[in-house]
Amino acid sequence: MFNTKLPTQSELPTSRQLLRSTVIAMGVAAALLVTVVMPSEYAIDPTGVGRVLGLTQMGEMKEVLAEEAAADAAVQPAATPVVKAPAPGQVAPQEQVAAAPVAEPVAEPQQALKTNEMTVTLKPGEATEIKLEMLNTATVSYEWATNGAPVNHDTHGEPYNGPQGYYHSYSKAKQVKGDKGEFTAIFDGTHGWFWRNRSNSDVTITLKTKGEYLSVKRVI
C-alpha cells in the first residue's frame, strides 16, 4: 500500500479562490455559448464573431436543410396498398355476377393543343408554383430556364379530391438552371412545377408549355 500525505490546511484552496475559479469557468462557458454554439447550431450570432469564423453560415445551412427535410416529409406520396396473392395451389373464390350487356365505347373528343409562355421572378428564399389542369392520359411538353441562377424544382401532380398530402412526382432536382421534357397525366387533376430560389440574388424563370391541358395558372 502507498501512504499519501494529506495536504495541510494552508495548501487547500480558499473559498474565495474556489468562487473566483467558478466565476471564470462560467464566463468562459457563456462566451463559448454566444460565440460558438449559438452561431453554429442555431445561426444566432449576437456578437458577429460567429460569422467571422464561418460558424453562422454553418448554422444557416443546418436550418435550410432542416426546413427542406420537413417540407419533403410533409408531401410524401401515400403508400400504395399491397394486394396479397393466393398461395400456390389455392384458388381464390369467384363471385357469381350477372352478365351485363357490353356498351359500345364512346370516343372522347380530342382536346385542342394549347401553347403558353409564362415568366416569374423570385427573390432569395422565395418559392412559386405554376399548374396545368389536365385530364387523365393528356400529354404536355415543356421547357423552362432561369436567367443564370440555379433553383430547386419539383415537377409533380395532384388528383382532384385526392388524399391529403398525396402527389405524384415526375421529376425533381436541386440547384439547376433549367429542365425540359414531356409527361403524361396519370389522373385528372393539376400538374406542374414548383421552384424555390436558394441563391442570394433574384432569379427569373421562363416556362414554355405545349399540350393537351385545360388551363394554366400561377397558384403561389
Defining key terms:
220 residues; Jelly Rolls; 2 domains; four-stranded antiparallel β-sheet; 3 helices; 9 strands; elongated
Low-confidence parts, pLDDT < 50 over ≥5 residues? 77-83, 88-93, 105-109
CATH first level of the largest domain: Mainly Beta
Q: Taking strands numbered 1, 2, ... along the chain, how are they ordered across the largest sheet?
A: 5-4-7-2-9
Structural class: alpha+beta
Helix content: 10-25%
- Write the CATH fold name of the largest domain: Jelly Rolls
Known CATH architecture of the largest domain = Sandwich
- Structure annotation, total helices: 3
* Share of residues in strands: 25-35%
Rg estimate, integer Å: 31 Å
Structure in a nutshell:
This protein is of the alpha+beta class and 220 residues long. Helices cover 24% and strands 32% of the residues. The chain has two domains: 16-74, no CATH class; 114-218, Sandwich (Jelly Rolls), CATH 2.60.120.680.
